[in-house]
Amino acid sequence: MARTLSMKDAINEALDQEMTRDPTVIMMGEDIVGGAGAAGEDDAWGGVLGVSKGLYAKHPKQMIDTPLSESAYVGAAIGAATCGLRPVAELMFIDFMGVCLDQIYNQAAKFRYMFGGKAETPVVIRAMCGAGFRAAAQHSQMLTPIFAHIPGLKVVCPSNAYDTKGLLIQAIRDNDPVIFLEHKNLYGSECDVPEEPYAIPFGEANVVREGSDVTIVTYGLMVPNSLTAAETLKKEGIDVEVIDLRTISPIDMDTVIESVEETGRLVCVDEANPRCSIASDISSVVAQDAFGALKAPIEMVTAPHAPVPFTPSLEDIYIPSPDRIADAVRKTMASSKQEVAAQ
Amino acid sequence: MSDLIIPILMPKWGLSMSEGTLAAWHVEEGTEISPGDEIMDVETDKIANVVEAADGGLLRRRVGSDGEIYPVRALLGVMAPAEVSDAEIDAFVDAYELPEVEEEEDTGPTYEFADLPIGKIRYAERSGEGTPVIFIHGFGGDLDNWLFNIDAVSEVAPAYALDLPGHGQSVKAVDQPGLDKLVTTIIDFMDHLGVDKAHLVGHSKGGLVSGQTAISHPDRVASLTLICSAGLGAEINSDYIEGFVSAASRKELKPKLHHLFADKSLVNRSMVDDLLKYKRIDGVQDYLEALKAALFDGGSQAVDIAKGLEALDIPLLVVWGAEDAVIPVAHADAVSGAEVVVIDGAGHMVQMENANRVNELITSRL
Q: Which residues belong to any copy of the Transketolase-like pyrimidine-binding domain (chain A) (predicted)?
């Protein structure tokens, strides 16, 4: 049988294989090594959740533990990228991007454009994202829309271990800045992952489930939640197609439009807050380009416009659940039935 | 009385299959079934195929329903002679239990790996008695191309299927890929297995490899079965070869795969995704480009082994799908003295599209 790997181990393997293949690939971040622990242990931490554990022993010259200053080392990584290295900077949580946004959106994202195509910035900035980890409002956000808004950045948010390895390798080989977002509640999810290195091109959505009645467009943790909803709905005779965007920027609208033209119904599921979100973006493009194909109003399932609560019971209802997704799908089915009845 | 009852079970096609959809029954209750009759369509996430009866008998009960999903080895139907009472059949159906999955995996086949001089080679092994059969896949294929063949053939002989270098889960980094390296791999593989002589069954490019192996090492090959084989003429569908190599996305690849089957609906999303996953592994693109340049450059086949095969003194069976859109069926007649069978209603992947007929041809000649 093919080998299974968790998303966390898939990230480790991608970093390991790329640092082996290319000595200009380096890692920078807080406690990605973490200092000596017990005797013989030279990477006591290996990152906040142990993602880079074991890599320092193999690549001691390619891993830099940085001071607790995201603005400094993200800036350094971007500068190094323009000078010939391929740095992978790790921020523990996407929430910390705020302190280094100037480096990201005003520098890295602009270099190629402002230097007339003469400068390239092959940097990857990795961070954990998403809610459900009981980590409160400053460590749980899904800030994909902020980065998708900025031209010059590529934004990736995988839903499974296979895609994670191939997309991270692609991110490292890509000559533009990539924001690579890993949902912390998916770190343990396992699937078949080839041992060999492979790259998945950006801008190619994955139809993870084929269906004829309703299209769900989503990414990240909301992919498994949508698939759970689809299984429930199947028992009710509703056949749901689920599209995993995989990369938010570039975005594969062709696959979305083609699917909606078949199903006529769209549910956008996004763990981000609803205003100016990936869900609202998809919804606006479909309304503009495929309005004639729609049999029912577009539905959106998102977090509320509120910070992520620390109270576990509130956090659980904050995150779009399979039940809420299923309800939204039923709503699109019901409204189109009314339309048919009215004719 | 229960030894008169013959169960019809959900088949297991390949290691990854855990469940299948009973798409449609082809026989009604009360029908007398003969071995080989088409009794139902089964679909998995990988492939759809018709199931033929392994045993004959009177179909007394359809336990499985059209459109429902069942685990592998689930009871789908019951055959029994008329003297068995309905109550006994009820009791059999009620008492039927799925075999434990763990047992299945303990005793069932697994993939093996061999360290050959060229690198790591993956293969599947089915034990049996006599001179072994080795299945050799085509360009861009892998050992799962023999999904519907290896088990049936292993009932009469030990059966092996391997991933050639550059393919499947075998080594991808190969210097200057070409026919010689593939032939050497087959001989090294036989040495690794301790197999002195084998029946080679090759599909497409694998047919060319099989034939060249027999020509170069006539003492190692007991017989040849060449299925829609390369190496028997110049023509080959360059839209398929070029398109398969250059396709970088699902949209580009899917129409190219339509060339492989007479029934285009067999090309499903899972098949396209699996091939894309293969093509995206580091080294595969370079390997396919180099092998294409060595064997099929400029839309024509570089190697013709027909004359070499005529000089051999071993049984040679040539099988072709009448609707092959990759290599012309006219090439089936290239080797004088060979037994030729052309199968209607099947394309280039005839060993998948009409597995039962191909299996019968192979096993009846062993």
A: 5-189
pLDDT digits 0-9 by tens, B255-270? 999 999 999 988 988 8
- List, by residue range, all CATH 3.40.50.1820 domains of chain B: 109-364
Does A1 contact B16 at a Cβ distance shorter than 8 Å? yes
* Rg, Å, chain A Cα set: 21
Q: pLDDT tens across B244-300, in order? A: 999 999 989 999 999 999 999 889 888 999 999 999 999 999 999 999 999 998 889
Measured distance CA(A25)–CA(A205) in Å, rounded: 27
Q: Do B269 and A166 touch (CB under 8 A)?
A: no
Q: Which domains does chain A show, CATH number per domain? A: 4-192 (3.40.50.970), 206-342 (3.40.50.920)
**Distance, CA of A128 to CA of A221 (rounded, Å):** 12
Nearest-Cα distance to chain B for A207, in Å, is 9
Residues of chain A with pLDDT under 70: 1-2, 36-41, 336-343
Instruction: Report H helices in chain A.
Output: 7-21, 55-58, 70-82, 101, 111-114, 144-148, 161-173, 222-235, 253-263, 278-289, 312-318, 322-342
**Which of A196, A200, A208 to mutate to test binding with chain B, by most B CBs within 10 Å of its CB?**
A196
ipTM above 0.85, yes or no: yes
A149 catalytic residue (yes or no): no
The two tokens of residue A159 are 């839903």
CATH class name, domain B2-105: mainly beta
| CATH fold for domain B109-364 | Rossmann fold (3.40.50)
Region(s) of chain B under CATH 2.40.50.100: 2-105
| Confidence band for B107, pLDDT divided at 50, 70 and 90 | very low
Q: Which amino acid is at A213?
A: D
